[in-house]
Write a structure and sequence with these properties.
The protein is mainly α. It is built from 20 helices and 2 strands. Strands 1-2 form a two-stranded antiparallel sheet. 8% of the residues are buried.
């Protein structure tokens, strides 16, 4: 057998295999390529773009319908939700959220939390609490135990320390009653009428040696000269008063008096009346001026700073840290009872809201054809290669039949 006859018998299966292999390969490539339409002389070539890029909208719709009708049915979503929303998972999720919130509050990276709590505190103390106190203060027994306790434990047992009494005595003599003020008090007190009254009273109500002094010398001339001296010699009289305060140890006397000052030294009846007066005064103040007081307080206070301090104190409190697990468990039980009753309704209402099918459609439409090709090839790469190989095998078999036909025809 010469070479021409050998090629005649070999070429059909070889060419069939090559044509079958590359024909399937080209057909698979044409599913995706070209990615864009090709124009020649302003006329679009057939089969451009590829089958999938040209029908990408319909492909997305079909994929969404297949997933929603066969895979993500309401029953499957409900079963999936039940598995995800088991009590232990709910508790862990809620605990994680609570711990995340506490960590965020510890870092204090979000000032909005402080602003919200500051607004709540301002509204509570500036508006709600004053109205509530105004209503409650109309009751006769309102805050009676609390005020009595404060009076008995604080006011009744209050005493000035030695240092406090010293400072208060110094303040009284240096600010309230300095020599200049004392001199002016003496001048204002010693009017002509006052001097006349003192002189007459001294003459009438004294006896013995004092009566002789009062009637022979009297006090009118002495008091008049004292007033004149205070008016004419201001600096000298101030100096004399300062020396007199020092010589008489007025500061030490005032200090001793202040140290001994206490409500316990008063009679029992006076203390009871004072306690009742204090209670009535507090009630009356809350009724008349309590709203203004709390309003001024809320306006002057830095509530954001107070809220920040309060948050930091709560976060660092061991009670808060130990109660997070208990709170998460209680929340999980509440949610479980609610979900057992309304989970089916929730899932049916959630599916339209999530619009999963629309998300799939939009995602398929937005995916470039090259990425879509890569994704599909990544899923069915072996299957696509098997189709290409099958095309080559079928072409080879057809070529064999053709070779057999030629062989029998020639013989």
């Amino acid at each position: 057998m010469d070479l021409s006859h050998l090629l005649l018998y070999i070429s059909p299966p070889v060419l069939g295999a090559v044509i079958g292999y590359y024909t399937n390969d080209i057909a698979i490539k044409m599913l995706f390529r070209p990615y864009r339409p090709i124009y020649i002389f302003k006329r679009q070539l057939p089969f451009t773009p590829g089958l999938i890029p040209s029908n990408q909208d319909r492909l997305g719709q079909n994929i969404a319908n297949a997933i929603m009708k066969s895979l993500l049915t309401p029953e499957e979503l409900e079963n999936l939700a039940r598995k995800l929303l088991e009590t232990e998972r709910l508790q862990k999720g809620i605990l994680w959220l609570l711990q995340l919130v506490t960590e965020q509050l510890k870092n204090n990276t979000n000032p909005r939390t402080s602003q919200i709590i500051a607004g709540i505190l301002k509204n509570l103390l500036g508006e709600s609490l004053p109205r509530l106190l105004k209503v409650l203060s109309r009751q006769e027994k309102f805050l009676e135990p609390q005020i009595n306790q404060i009076f008995d434990k604080v006011l009744l047992e209050f005493r000035l320390t030695e240092e406090q009494a010293t400072r208060l005595a110094d303040w009284l003599l240096e600010v309230v009653l300095p020599p200049e003020v004392l001199r002016q008090i003496i001048v204002d007190f010693l009017t002509d009428r006052t001097i006349q009254t003192i002189d007459e009273s001294f003459r009438e109500k004294t006896s013995g040696t004092y009566w002789v002094v009062a009637n022979l010398f009297g006090l009118k001339n002495t008091l008049t000269r004292l007033r004149t001296f205070c008016l004419d010699e201001k600096e000298v009289s101030n100096q004399r008063l300062a020396e007199l305060i020092k010589d008489l140890k007025i500061r030490d006397r005032i200090k001793e008096l202040l140290e001994k000052l206490s409500l316990q030294n008063l009679p029992v009846g006076t203390v009871r009346q004072l306690r009742k007066t204090t209670r009535d005064s507090v009630r009356q103040y809350l009724q008349n001026s309590g709203s203004d007081f709390f309003k001024d307080l809320t306006e002057s206070a830095d509530w954001e700073k107070i809220a920040t301090v309060l948050i930091n104190r709560l976060i660092s409190s061991p009670v808060v840290n130990t109660s997070l697990e208990l709170v998460s468990h209680d929340f999980a039980l509440i949610l479980e009872k609610y979900l057992e009753k309304d989970l089916e309704i929730i899932v049916k209402q959630t599916i339209p809201i999530l619009s999963i099918d629309q998300v799939i459609i939009e995602r398929v439409k937005a995916t470039p054809a090259a990425e879509l090709e890569a994704a599909i090839e990544g899923i069915v790469k072996n299957e696509l290669q098997a189709i290409v190989s099958l095309g080559g095998i079928l072409g080879f078999i057809v070529g064999l039949f053709q070779t057999g036909f030629i062989f029998f025809t020639q013989n």
